[in-house]
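Propose amino acids for all 348 sites.
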């Protein structure tokens, strides 16, 4: 057989040779490869929601653990002082906002919050020791133009410290720490804050529509355990029982404004810091004509808010952390906040 014939035979067998691997086994065709890729894609699509659900379950568990740790801190503070920490301290007369503090003979803007008072019981003693308690948490600030003092201590470096115990890992953030400005008269209070996704149970206010759904309608306002209206509140005052009374709730995502899982572009609001008086002034009234109280919006005095599907985490006065469904009735919600309603809630 001549050389040219050998070359022709080799050319005829190219397809057969190329369809085999080195060990003689048949390889994938293009169609088979595409089908395999499609099957893998379908499997990934099926597995991805399960993986995401597993991750969210872990985040929700961490959020519950944060509240449990805060519950331990609250009880350790109570064991030391025989009361829960004051939600914040401030005295108003005619200069401070009329919603701040307690009424007195003069204005005292030396404001400090429960977040600071809990620090030594949350393994944050060194941070607590940096606070100058004769100056407000938002110092340095010069308030002499409104007849108050010039505070020169730098407490903002403490307030601006991010603390993981106050952060729900499910919450999306644009920044932490963040800046927010409010006013004392015409003086801007520009403060840096470490984020806080939880708020104290101060009570139910008479604003909004939540109380329209509660039967029987209680006298207004309904004070919670952490109400600034009630001084020296402790376990002995909780006549409904510590396992039936709320201490903290999720109110997540501030300073960004969220409604039904969507961030409102460009909108911001106060109350997003762990050392923020507007977080400590945390009342609920419900939002909308249906009195929605859970996972509707995180705006001021409207309700509890989280990024967990179906409800929010909250802390009871006995230190237990629980998940509360967003379908919980307004009556149960109010009775959880009201610590001496005389109502037994039962299993919720």
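Proposal:
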């Amino acid at each position: 057989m001549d050389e040219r014939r050998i070359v022709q035979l080799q050319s005829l067998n190219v397809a057969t040779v190329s369809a085999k691997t080195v060990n003689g086994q048949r390889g994938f065709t293009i169609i088979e490869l595409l089908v395999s890729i499609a099957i893998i894609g379908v499997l990934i699509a099926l597995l991805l929601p399960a993986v995401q659900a597993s991750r969210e379950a872990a985040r929700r568990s961490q959020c519950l653990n944060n509240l449990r740790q805060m519950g331990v801190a609250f009880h350790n503070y109570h064991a030391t002082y025989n009361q829960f920490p004051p939600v914040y301290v401030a005295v108003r007369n005619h200069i401070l906002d009329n919603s701040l503090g307690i009424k007195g003979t003069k204005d005292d803007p030396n404001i400090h919050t429960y977040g600071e008072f809990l620090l030594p019981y949350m393994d944050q003693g060194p941070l607590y020791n940096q606070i100058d308690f004769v100056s407000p948490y938002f110092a340095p600030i010069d308030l002499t133009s409104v007849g108050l003092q010039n505070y020169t201590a730098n407490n903002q470096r403490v307030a601006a410290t991010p603390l993981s115990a106050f952060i729900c890992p499910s919450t999306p953030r644009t920044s932490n720490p963040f800046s927010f400005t409010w006013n004392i008269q015409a003086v801007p209070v520009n403060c840096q804050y470490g984020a806080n996704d939880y708020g104290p149970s101060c009570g139910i206010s008479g604003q909004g529509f939540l109380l329209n759904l509660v039967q029987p309608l209680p006298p207004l306002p309904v004070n919670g355990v952490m109400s600034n209206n009630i001084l020296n509140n402790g376990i002995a005052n909780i006549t409904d029982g510590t396992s039936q009374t709320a201490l903290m709730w999720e109110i997540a995502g501030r300073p960004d404004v969220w409604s039904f899982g969507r961030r409102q572009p460009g909108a911001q609001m106060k109350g997003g810091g762990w050392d923020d008086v507007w977080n400590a002034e945390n009342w609920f009234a419900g939002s909308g004509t249906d009195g929605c109280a859970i996972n509707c919006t995180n705006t001021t005095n409207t309700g509890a808010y989280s990024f967990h599907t179906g409800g929010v985490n909250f802390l009871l006065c006995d230190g237990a952390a629980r998940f509360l469904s967003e379908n919980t009735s307004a009556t149960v919600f109010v009775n959880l906040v009201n610590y001496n309603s005389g109502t037994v809630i039962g299993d919720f």
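The longest strand covers residues 178-184. Residues 14-22 have pLDDT under 50 and may be disordered.
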